[in-house]
Amino acid sequence: MIELKNITKSFGEGASAVKALDDITLKVPSGAIYGVVGASGAGKSTLIRCVNLLERPSSGDVLVNGQNLVKMNDRELRQTRRDIGMIFQHFNLLSSRTVYDNIALPLELAGKSKAEIHEAIEPLLQLTGLDEKRQSYPSQLSGGQKQRVAIARALASKPAVLLCDEATSALDPKTTNAILQLLKDINKQLGITILLITHEMEVVKSICDRVAILHGGRLIEENAVEQFFIQPQTEIAREFVRSALHEKQPAELEADFHKEPREGSRPVVRISFMGHSAVEPLITQAARQFNVDISILQADMETVHGNRMGFLTAELIGDEAATQAATNYLQQHPVQVEVLGYVN
Amino acid sequence: MSTDAWLLLGSALWETVYMVALSGAMSFLFGIPLGVLLYSTREGNILQSPLTNQLLGAVVNAARSVPFIILMVAIIPLTRLLTGTSIGTTAAIVPLTLASIPFVARIAEGALNEVPGGLVEAAESMGATPLQIISRVLLPEALPGLIHGITLTLVTLVSYSAMAGAIGGGGLGDLGIRYGYHRFDGVIMAATVIVLIILVQLIQMAGDHLHRKFDHS
Ligand SMILES: Nc1ncnc2c1ncn2[C@@H]1O[C@H](COP(=O)(O)OP(=O)(O)OP(=O)(O)O)[C@@H](O)[C@H]1O
Ligand SMILES: [Mg+2]
Q1: What percent helix, strand, coil does chain A show, rounded to 5?
Q2: Given A75, A132, A334, B196, which residue has the most CB atoms within 10 angstroms?
Q3: Domain housing B53
Q4: How far apart are CA A270 and CA A248, in angstroms?
C-alpha cells in the first residue's frame, strides 16, 4: 500500500519558486491499479518520483507498506527502493547490456549469486514474452519489447509496488494495449500494487481501478473508475471523461447551449448506465409517463474497467414540471442522470 | 638504408612505443578516476559537491593550459625525484603522463556526460549505491566514448613523445631530428615519418575496432 500525506514540493526558491505539488494526500490500496491523470505540467512525474524519493518532497510523508521513506537514512532508503519497481516513458535500459543482463541488474546490485539471478529471471522472460530475445541488445528491440524488458527488470527484485511514469506514452496504440494487458496480468498474477501516471484517459479506462486527477499541483478529484466515468465532479474531470469516451461538448451538439436555465429552455442531460440496465424501455417509459420527448443527441457503449457502460446525451422536450419529473423518475433507476445545461 | 639505420629505426620505434604505452597507461589510471570525480561532483549528479567540482576543474584547466614544452622543463625536479634522472625515455614518461592526465580526465568527463540521465535515475530507483552506479552503469555505458578518448590520447602521446624525444628522450622524434635535421639525412628523416604514420594508423585502427565491438547503441 502507498500512502502520501500532505505532500508538497517546490522547485527553486524565493520569487521564482514553482509549487509543483500542493498538499497532496492519497492512498493506493494494496493490489490496486491506481491511475493519476493530469495535463502536461500538472505535476504527475513529480508526484510519482516522490513515491520512491527520486524527488524528495519539500514536506509531507511517503508511506510504502507502512514505512515512512522520508524518515529513512540513505542505506534504509536503498533497501526499501528494492521493494518498489519503476518503469519509465523512455525505458532507460542499459545499451551496453543484453536483455538478460538488463533484467539481472537490480539483482546484481542486491548482491545475488549467478544461480539466484538465473532462477529469478527465467520466469520473467516467459511472463514478458522475451525468451527469444534474451541475448539481444536494446537497440535491436522495438519500443514495446523495450518496455517489456523494463517491466521484467522492475519485477526482478519481486517488489510489492510498481510505479509507471507514462509507461505507454512513447508507444503506438496497439503496442500500448499489449503493454497495458501485461501490466494487468502482472497485477492479477503477482498481486502487485501499481501506481501509474498518464495523460491518456484511455489507459485509465482500460486498466485502472481508481483514478485521481491532478491539476496545477493539486489533487482535485479521486474516485473508483466506474463512478468517475458516470459522475465526474469537476469540469476538468468531465473534460477527461469526454475525451476518453470521444463525447462531444453539448455546445457542439446544440448551438444555443447555455449552463443556466432560461425562460422556456429545455434541459440537456447525460445519462450513464451499466451495460445490463435495460435503458431503452426505461427511457420510453419516462417519455410516455410524463409526456416528454427525449431526443438522443449522442449515444455510446464503452468498456470501462472491464464493464460495459452506456453513455447518452439527450435533450428533454416538454414543460418544466414534466422534464423535472422525468429526470427524477430516471434517477430512481440504476442509471445516472446529470443535467449538463439547457437549450432554448 | 644500411643495417645500422634499420637498427636505429627499430630501437627508436621501441622507445616511442615504450614511452607512449607507459605514459598512456599511467594517465588512464589517474585520468579516468579524475574524470569520474569531475562528472559525479557536478551539481545534480550522484556525488554533487560544487566546491570540489570547481576546485578540481580549476586544477585541471590550469594543468591543461601549460604548454607541454614548458611543463617538461618546469617539472624536472619532480622527474628527477621519481626516476633518478632528467633525460632519457623513462624520464620523459613523467611529463608525458602529467600532461595527459587532465586531458584524459576531461575526455572521460565528456564521455560520462553522454550517458542519459535516465539510466542513473533507473539505477537509483533500484537502490544502487553511488559506487555501483559508477561501476555498473556509468562506466560500461560510457565505454565506447572512453575508447574514442583513449585512442585520441594515445595518438596525441605519439606526437608529444616526439617532442619529449627532442630534448634527449630518445624515440622516433629524437631520431628524426638528430639525423634528418642535424645531419641532413633525408632518408632516415623520411623513414621516421613513415613509421610514425604507420604507428598512428595502427592505434587508430585498433581503437576503431574496439569501439565497434563495445558499441551496442
Ligand atoms: N527539476 C525541476 N526543476 C524545476 N522545476 C521543475 C522540475 N521538475 C518539474 N518542475 C516543474 O514542476 C511542474 C510539474 O512538472 P512535472 O514534470 O511533474 O509535470 P507532468 O505532469 O509530469 O508533465 P508532463 O505530462 O509534461 O510530463 C512543472 O511546472 C515543471 O516545470
Ligand atoms: Mg511527466
Answers
A1: 40, 30, 30
A2: B196
A3: 3-214
A4: 11
Give the residue on B whose Cα is nearest the Cα of A101.
B136
Q: How many angstroms away from the CA of B111 is the closest CA of chain A?
A: 14
CA distance B176 to A325: 107
The tens place of each residue's pLDDT in chain B, 217 residues long, gives 788 888 889 999 999 999 999 999 999 999 999 999 999 999 999 999 999 999 999 999 999 999 988 988 899 999 999 988 888 888 899 999 999 999 999 999 999 999 999 999 999 999 999 999 999 999 999 999 999 999 999 999 998 988 887 667 788 888 888 887 788 888 888 999 999 999 999 999 999 999 999 999 8
Residue whose cell numbers read 523494463: A150
- Ligand 1 pocket (Cβ < 6 Å) reads A 11-12, 18, 20, 38, 40-46, 199
Per CB-CB distance under 8 Å, the chain A contacts of B143 are 96
Neighbours of B25 (CB within 10 A): 11
User: Whose alpha carbon is nearest atom 6 of ligand 1?
Assistant: A11
Report the relative pairing of strands A210-215 and A33-38 from DSSP bridges: parallel
Q: Which residues contact A62 (CB under 8 A, 6 or more apart)?
A: A2, A3, A4, A5, A7, A50, A51, A53, A68, A69, A70
Question: Chain A: nearest CA to B42, how far in angstroms?
Answer: 18
**What is the whole-number distance in angstroms between the Cα of residue A307 and the centre of ligand 2?**
29
CA–CA dist A33, B100 (Å, integer): 55
Ligand 1 mutation target, pool A9, A13, A18, A21, most atoms within 8 A of CB: A18
Which parts of chain A are beta strand (E)? 2-11, 18-28, 33-38, 59-64, 67-68, 84-87, 161-165, 193-198, 210-215, 218-224, 257-258, 266-274, 293-304, 307-317, 335-343
CB A171 within 8 A of CB A179: yes
Does B126 contact A108 at a Cβ distance shorter than 8 Å?
no
Q: Write out the three cell numbers for B73.
A: 622543463
Please give the ipTM for the structure prediction: 0.90
Q: Give the total number of structural domains in chain B.
A: 1
How close is the nearest chain A Cα to the Cα of B113, in Å? Answer: 15
Q: Which domains does chain A have, with CATH numbers?
A: 2-233 (3.40.50.300), 247-343 (3.30.70.260)
Nearest CA in chain B to A78: B127
